[in-house]
Amino acid sequence: MPIYCISPDGCWAIVNDFRRSFAMHPETGYAGLEDPFSDQLAPEKSGIWKMDLRTGKSELIVSLADVVAIPRERGYSKNAKHYFDHLLFAPDGQRFVFFQRWRGEAEGWAFSTRMLSADADGKNIRVLDPYGRTSHYNWRDSRSLLVWMNHPSHGERFYMMNEPDASVVPFATDAMPKNGQPSFFRGGRWIVSDTSPDQDRLQHSYVYDTKMRKRYDIGHFHSPPEYTGYWRCDTTPKVSPDGKKIIVDSPHGGNGRQMYLIDISLIVG
To answer: What is the dihedral of CA 10, 60, 238, 214, to 10 degrees?
Structure first.
């Protein structure tokens, strides 16, 4: 997921404070600039900015202090430092989802996560997942999302979530049992996703037909051991605008991180 996201009309972008992101989680930020609020746990002047792509004008629309002030039943670990991640507009551009993440004494080098959504101007914030283990997600349409989360109802798995009230139902448990990075084709019938390296360090990319409830594996990519931890290379499969090709990232060829184009037209028809 990017730390910035362009609105569907191409006029606006929401941008995370990348200086803080790098300090807290290097693979989702940019090096070279110091976080001016590094000594603050939840600064008022750091957060999500809305930028007009025509003029370059930007304004802070959600601060870390704003979100930390929203009550959380379990509270936070001691000395927890907060940052934002995983910003994504809904298809109609009216709302966006983002992650509040924090790391304190209880988390060590790991982090906890709360998933929230807001209007395009940062107003009307809703807590979608308060349980601390939200991972990858994507919008199916402007009201529903596919989310990997650890929900009290059925544990850790993919759920289809209704954004307005945060209700969830388990999704494709047999076909998509592993955490991955899902994207929907236009129309919402097909999904492309992937997995982390298995015991043989193979990353599996696949498409899933929600109508026929059938999975089609499209590639098994070896991830060398040096691509581990912060510097891993997720395949992050994305679909072409015509829905007939998939692009994946992979270092399996021995020549570093590369992008590979896969024709899936025989599968999707």
So the answer is: -110
Domain that holds residue 238: 180-269
User: Which domain-ending residue is among 129, 152, 171?
Assistant: 171
What's the number of domains the chain is made of? 2
Contact 33, 63 (CB under 8 A): no
Do residue 157 and residue 196 come from a single domain?
A: no
Domain co-membership, 188 together with 151: no
b/e code 10-28 from CB counts within 10 Å (16+ = b): eebbbbbbbbbbbbbbeeb
**163 in helix, strand or coil?**
coil
Q: Which residues of the chain have pLDDT under 50?
A: 1-2
Which tens digit of pLDDT belongs to each residue from 175-223?
999 999 999 998 899 999 999 999 999 999 999 999 999 999 999 999 9
pLDDT at position 1 is: 40
Same domain, 127 and 167: yes
Structure tokens given for 235: 């395949």
Beta strands in the chain (DSSP E): 4-6, 12-16, 47-52, 58-63, 81-89, 95-103, 112-119, 126-132, 137-139, 144-151, 155-162, 167-170, 183-184, 190-194, 202-209, 214-222, 238-239, 245-250, 258-263
Together in a domain, 71 and 162: yes
Residue whose C-alpha is closest to residue 100's, from 27, 23, 42: 42
What type of residue is 250?
S
Residues 213 and 268 reside in one and the same domain: yes
